[in-house]
Design brief:
Ubiquitin-like (UB roll), five-stranded mixed beta sheet, 22% strand, globular
């Protein structure tokens, strides 16, 4: 298990436990995190699970794949730390991961 903190646009934060092997998106859906819509169910074919990875975690979560970058074109307010949460696998070394949920999804 790894703890993941989701910070809402309002600044409210919620920390939940994610199962190793699941995705950050699946963990959000399972725990009712607001703002993660995940319309495609994690198939990397939309941008409705867009998050901003906290700068301290950017290197550990890695860079988006070319396919993910293409999907991020459909997200609002893309930043250098933007990722699709369906593409970030929960791993033990991500224990403590912090992501911010954007104001709106693509």
């Amino acid at each position: 298990m790894a703890k993941i903190t989701y910070i809402q646009p309002s600044g409210d934060a919620r920390t939940v436990e994610g199962e190793v092997g699941a995705t950050v998106m699946e963990t959000a859906i399972k725990n009712g995190i607001q703002g993660i819509e995940a319309e495609c169910g994690g198939a990397c074919s939309c941008a409705t699970c867009h998050v901003y990875v906290d700068a301290a975690w950017k290197e550990k979560t890695g860079e988006p794949s070319p396919m993910e970058e293409d999907m991020l074109d459909f997200a609002f307010e893309v930043k250098a730390t933007s990722r699709l949460s369906c593409q970030i696998k929960v791993r033990e070394d991500l224990d403590g991961l912090v992501v911010r949920v954007p104001e709106r999804q693509g």
